[in-house]
Amino acid sequence: MCARRARPGNTAAMRIIKILAILLAVLVVLAGALILIIPRIDFAQYRKPLESYVSGVTGRSFTINGVFEPVLSLTPTIRATDVHFANAEWADSADMAVIDEIYIRLRLWSLFSGPIRVIRLQINGGELHLQRNADGVDNWSFHSRRSGKAETGSDAGNAFVTLREVDISDTKLFYRSPDRQKPFDATINRLRLASPDIKSNEISLDATIAGQPLRAEGTIPRLREMVRGRADHTLQIEYRGTKIASRFEIEDFHSLKGLDGNIDVSGQQLETLTSFLGFAKLDQGAFDVSSSLKEKDGRIDFDGQFKTQSGTITATGVLSDWRTQPAVAAQIKLDIPELLPLARYHDLPLKKGGRLEANGGVSWSRTKLGFSGLTARFDSNTLSLDGDLGLPVRPENTTLKIRSAGPNIADALALFGIEYGIGYDFDLSADFSSHDDTITMQPFTLRLGENDFAGRIDVVPGQKPSIVATLKSEKIMAAKYLADRSQGDVSARKSDRVFNNDPFDFSFLDKFDGTLNLAADSIYFENIDLQNVSFKLAIDNGSLQVEPFAAEVNGGPLTGRLRLDRNRDSPLFQIEMKGDKLRFGVSDQMGPEVTSALPPITLESRVKASGNSLHEMAVSSDGWIKMASEAGRRPKGSFGLFTNDLLTQVYYALRPTAKREDQHTLGCGIYYLRLDEGEARLQPFLLQTDTITLRGRGRLEMADETLDIDFAAKPRKGIGVSVASIASPFLSVKGTLSDPKIRPNVAGGIVSGAAAFFTGGLSVLGKGIVDRATGGRDLCDDIDKILDKYRKGEDTDAIWEN
After folding, report:
1. pLDDT of residue 154
2. Per-residue model confidence (pLDDT) at position 22
3. DSSP per-residue codes, 103-128
4. d(CA 319, CA 301)
5. Alpha-carbon torsion (679, 684, 688, 691), positive or negative
6. Closest by alpha carbon to 407, among 431, 378, 432, 430?
7. Rounded to whole angstroms, how far apart are CA atoms 118 and 222?
8. Is it the case that residue 199 has pLDDT exceeding 60?
């Protein structure tokens, strides 16, 4: 029988099977050999060469102080413990890295052919210390001992091992830099890196920062690319409710060369992001920041938005010198109450407010904040800025023009943290310039309601600024300002005292030193206006002084001085005033004819008091107030020396028919109040009109503000006024200063001492003046003599303490 010839296809299959069998046999033999050989390899002989190799390449000491041994596997795996890698010489810590335990799985042939290829690197426990010094040098920039130069480019890439997978757990990370007040620290619970291609790593991070969890997913460059400075990445990070999504290509991380990409940051608490970055907390609300960034010729173009619950900033501009002297020039559109959050980091007092809209150019650097056509609207108040403002606020690089106007200056000042409390409409203009150490505002103009100011202000900034202002004004409505302030003073409305116990707050005097030289055409108070006013107000070391002070009161000169001395246990207040032929009244309301007919009054006053509240000052007051009036006429309802005061009420109570008279004709009067350790004594009080003579005396106890004043009245003889025209010849004023009670004094106890009461004990005048007093005759000739009685022995120099 003939043998069957084998088919060609079967022959090929058999050959393949034989080859595979041979290869399998070889692999089995090799595997067996490796299993037998690997445990017998003395890996300890590689410890010193490896330490020398890494130390030589990086220029840093690298030591393995613990075990250095193989782990049985199909691929060589080395386990080492207590591994130390030295830090840069200038760094704070001795070691840049300390590793408790490390596993390195290698490709076997790379041990012989190089570079060493690491399939898996696993680190369990340790510390990593990263640091940047004041010169901008990083401790992860390595220098070879062989060349003395930094390993960069391809050399750096070839000098290091290649990594396929990294797994790090339970490792501490620290970062220090001059711009951080304290080191940044974190715990890496788990970090995994895997290389899907030759340029990038997939990253998964679970870490803890300041006790708060941090999660990250995405891609970053492989180690050799990062050593070269490349920082391309696509990352999503979540920390304390803040989410960061970024996609960038970065050719060189240090210079940001080739930067191109975008970033989006969002969250429920803006303070989370700012505190993480080491900045002050800005806001409590939700936010979203998105921007595109692109490097061009060393600068970075950006186009983005910053959104919060209260508004949005849209900005397009350029960031330059970002590492050394960061500078930003941007065109912004702003609709947010937090105006320029960067101001918080440069001691600018911008704080709070309502709706704000802005358009214009803004530039920022570490030394100045610049504006180009910036216009803003804030609660209907407008602001325009052009020029530069030095940072922090200082003369250097300050050339700024400010224009602002609006219906409510209180809202505008609230933006700067100033609580003004009065919503006057305003118009402000100021041109800032700088010279030496001084910022000058000239011209400076301010219209505040009906008030106006113009002139020059010089400021020497610092922890305690020094301010010198020279201003002029046509009109200052002091009465309206004081009334508006009192309406907002809740404590004053609730108090049953005129001199309450609310402690003074003079803290504003401690914030600056300065001088105000003011010249005003008119200053209006409630019952009087001052003309041609000039004074110098000085604040020095928390104390205040006004001297000299000069004014006119409807033709009569008024001079004085005032001092508030706080360089003692309790503030000391002193005031001195002198006036001659003063006609008390508001000239604009009365007209020139009525004003010129007002009775001329001579005023002399010296008062001092000390204390930390109005009450304390009242009970310690010492001094005197004297006013003597000549003949004249006062309009209806204005019988008193001022207007509707207690004296007017007393006069109408004594003589009700006077309410129907258009004016009151005064012959003369004297008002003398002596202050002595909290007791105010009124003696004498004499007033003579064309129909009646009125006298009074009494006291006011400042401690409880109780009144005890008696008045007596008699008609003047020969002018057709009878006793019957007087409702009650005797009145007493009781109660308190805030709630006086006027009642008839039916006992008439004042009559028994009438002679002494009218004469003030002037025995030299004797019976003559008693007759005139009891007969209602003219007393004006004797006023000066009576006043001299009470002025005799007055030690005025003791009142004013130099």
Report:
1. 41
2. 58
3. EEEE-TTHHHHSS-EEEEEEEEEEEE
4. 6
5. positive
6. 378
7. 13
8. yes
Short-list 522, 443, 515, CA closest to 480: 522
> H-type helices in 98-194, by residue range?
110-113, 153-159
Token output for 562: 């005032």
- Residue-level pLDDT at 801: 47
The whole-number average pLDDT for the span 505-518 is 92
- The pLDDT of residue 324 is 62
| pLDDT tens-digit readout, 450-471 | 999 999 999 998 888 999 999 9
CA distances from 349 to 343, 344, 394, 404, 505 (A): 7, 7, 14, 17, 21
Using pLDDT thresholds of 50, 70 and 90, give the confidence band for residue 784.
low
| Gap between the Cα atoms of 673 and 707, Å rounded | 14
Mean pLDDT of the chain: 77
Q: pLDDT for 245-301, tens place per residue?
A: 999 898 887 778 888 999 998 887 665 555 555 444 455 567 888 999 999 888 889
Residues 112-152: pLDDT tens digits?
555 667 788 899 999 999 888 888 788 877 655 444 444 44
One-letter amino acid of 785: K
Residue for token pair 């009525």: 594
Q: In three state form, how does the secondary structure of 491-555 look?
A: HHHHCCCCCCCCECCCHHHHCCEEEEEEEEEEEECCCCEEEEEEEEEEEECCEEEEEEEEEEECC
Q: CB neighbours (10 Å) of residue 441? A: 19
Looking up tokens 């004006």 gives 780
Question: Could you tell me the CA-to-CA distances from 336 to 333, 352, 488 in Å, in that order?
Answer: 10, 10, 29
Q: What kind and span of H or E run contains 50? A: helix 47-58
Tokens of 664: 């009151």
How many helices and strands, by DSSP H and E, does the chain display? 15, 40
* Rounded Cα distance, 584 and 589, in Å: 12
Q: What is the spatial distance between Cα 359 and Cα 331, in angstroms, rounded to a whole number?
A: 7
**Does residue 647 contact residue 640 with C-beta atoms inside 8 Å?**
yes
Is the pLDDT at 770 greater than 50? The verdict is no
Contacts of 212 (CB under 8 A, 6+ apart): 239, 240
Mode of pairing for the β-strands spanning 68-71 and 62-64: unpaired
- State the pLDDT confidence band at 719, using cuts at 50, 70 and 90: very low
Q: Tell me whether the omega of the peptide bond preceding residue 221 falls within 30 degrees of 0, making it cis.
A: no
First vs last C-alpha separation in the chain: 150
The span from the CA of 580 to the CA of 564, in Å, is 25
